[in-house]
Amino acid sequence: MSFKITILGSSSALPTSKRFPSAHVVNIHERFFLIDCGEGTQIQLRKFKISFAKISHIFITHLHGDHFFGIFGVISTFNLLGRKNDIHIYSPGNLEKKVYSVINKKEIGFNIFFHRLSHENSEIIYETKNIEISAFPLDHRIETYAYLFKEKPKERNIKKEAIKEYNLSIKDILSIKKGNDFITKSGGHIENSKLSIPPYKPRAYAYCSDTKYKESIIKYLKNIDILYHEATFARDLYETAKITMHSTSEDAAKIALKANVKKLIIGHFSTRYKNTDIILKEAKAIFPKTQEANDGNEIIIPLIREE
Amino acid sequence: MSFKITILGSSSALPTSKRFPSAHVVNIHERFFLIDCGEGTQIQLRKFKISFAKISHIFITHLHGDHFFGIFGVISTFNLLGRKNDIHIYSPGNLEKKVYSVINKKEIGFNIFFHRLSHENSEIIYETKNIEISAFPLDHRIETYAYLFKEKPKERNIKKEAIKEYNLSIKDILSIKKGNDFITKSGGHIENSKLSIPPYKPRAYAYCSDTKYKESIIKYLKNIDILYHEATFARDLYETAKITMHSTSEDAAKIALKANVKKLIIGHFSTRYKNTDIILKEAKAIFPKTQEANDGNEIIIPLIREE
Questions:
Q1: Within this chain, do residues A26 and A165 fall inside the same structural domain, yes or no?
Q2: Is B66 among the residues known to form the active site?
Q3: Which end of chain B is more exposed for a tag (fewer CB within 10 A), N or C?
Q4: Per the domain annotation, does B307 fall within a domain?
Q5: Residues B190, B203 within the same domain
């Protein structure tokens, strides 16, 4: 029941030899979701040993080059590796047109489904029995979306010994998993807590980049485990952040604090910072549980039972 | 009077964490020419500390992704760095259309001149007082060109002491530099070798990738200093090379041998070779002065005087 984020790129517009442009991979229950796809993403996937075959959903936040110039290489490489499985790509703007201007559609041996985002508020864009992915608009120079990856609430887990002891039927088990008590054939009342244990807490991770400080997104981020929020600049470049519609260290930390998230990861650092300590320090002063994104970092969200 | 080649990428279609896709930079007299521009080229330029500002000519061999997917990032980064100087891009096919499908032309603050190649035999595509760059077709699955970078022949260098001794005029000097003897006012005959020294030999480097074995290119490569020739496969995959229109180790070495080049560099290795020793060994058996391309390699062509 994995829930692991791998940072593939943590720079802003200009990559450096240490920081590639934006891209994360999140592995939820061994399904891999790629978020943003800056230039060199396929190189980072190989470097950090992430299976290309396991990726079938790609989420692009916006059509600035440092967030999507790697999509051509990723698609070409999927094709060269003989991929047959569908790919779904979510993005605002007309990414499909750009992709097929560069790549010959006829040469691609698998289906690509482009899902063009264009909505207000938060919408679920993909779900399975166990997970739900939603997107909501950010505030940047062009149309941009944040992505929120959530496990669905789980039912209680039945105790194996209880099944034997009370000779429980499938129907009984389904009822107990929902939290109900159990009445035996002789009319005895068995409390649910004797028959089942609490489920694991649903885990959640959100990716918010690029954006200026936007308070209205806080409601979507309440109590989540991991918030990735861009922090392109330190506090002293507040005015630059405002003009370019990016966030500072403090902007990111304030969002984390107000949303009461468990951990904040900051990234998308401007290349002007040879050393990003100042950005981290300023964010930690407001929200201590802040971590700096570095290429290759893995962040695991552990399974914890509800109380 | 530099003439230095830097290997930015040496893989074939699929990059690895050690080998980026195709790209070389050649520095001739402190002018930098970029040849091919695979994904991640801008990252390699930074890594190997090559000034973006000094590049104003880009030569793309063909429009397979591993040779041009880095062009979007390079152009965007030039723009973000505030570039004002023109860029000239040489390529077969309609690269201009691809570039402007991905990048908004209006947002680019400098001129880009696209030069579309479409010719038989060899043609000079760019020249200055001191250098000459020509392109000739290779034999690949799509239209592909090789590029040849040559210094122009130089005149002999006048000995400073001779100017004083014989009180040489500008006209005299120009004549002596061409190799003529000198007749003094009193009718004395001074041999040229007493007045001047031989010039440096013009240096040359060619980049031939991707191509199957093509004998008709040998005439353009005669006696050059450095030949870069693709060697995607080892000998045992001769049939695969034929079908995909690539070269083997032996194909590259035979071209080098027949052209009598001074040094052969092989690259564009298929990802199936974790270790490329076998390719190098097979090439060396035919042409001993073969070197394997590795990302970051620098090859300097020294200045040598003619005899």
A1: no
A2: yes
A3: C
A4: no
A5: no
Residue A23 lies in a domain: yes
Q: Are B303 and B1 in contact (CB under 8 A)?
A: yes
CB contact under 8 A, B46 and A16: yes
Q: Is B306 within the bounds of a domain?
A: no
A39/B42 Cβ within 8 A: yes
A and B: number of Cβ contacts within 8 A = 82
Q: Are residues A182 and A235 in the same domain?
A: no
Kindly report the nearest CA distance between residue B135 and chain A, in angstroms. 24
Structural domain range at position A189: 157-197
Give residue-wise pLDDT tens across range B193-219. Answer: 999 999 999 999 999 999 999 999 999
The domain tally of chain A equals 2
Does B163 share its domain with B254? no
**Residue B1: pLDDT band with limits 50, 70, 90:** confident
Taking CB atoms and an 8 Å limit, are A98 and B97 in contact across chains?
A: no
Same domain for A163 and A105, yes or no, is no
Buried b (16+ CB within 10 A) or exposed e, A199-212: bebbbbbbbbbbbb
Tens of pLDDT, residues B223-233: 999 999 999 99
The residue in chain B having the minimum alpha-carbon distance to the alpha carbon of residue A75 is: B65
Nearest CA in chain B to A72: B69
Q: Are residues A173 and A296 in the same domain?
A: no
Considering the domain architecture, whether residues A77 and A37 belong to the same structural domain is answered as yes
Block residue for tokens 């014989």: B166
Question: Cα angle at B60 between B18 and B82, to 5 degrees?
Answer: 85
Whether residue A307 lies inside any domain: the answer is no
pTM: predicted TM-score of the whole model, two decimal places: 0.93
Q: Are residues A177 and A251 in the same domain?
A: no
What is the value of ipTM here, to two decimals?
0.91
DSSP B235: G
Helices (H), B26-102: 41-47, 65-68, 71-80, 95-102
CB interface of B with A, residues 40-79, below 8 Å: 40, 42-43, 46-47, 65-66, 69-70, 72-73, 76-77
Check CB contact of A97 with chain B, cutoff 8 Å: yes
Give the mean pLDDT of A153-177.
93
Contact B5, B25 (CB under 8 A): yes
Report the first-to-last Cα separation within chain B, whole angstroms: 19
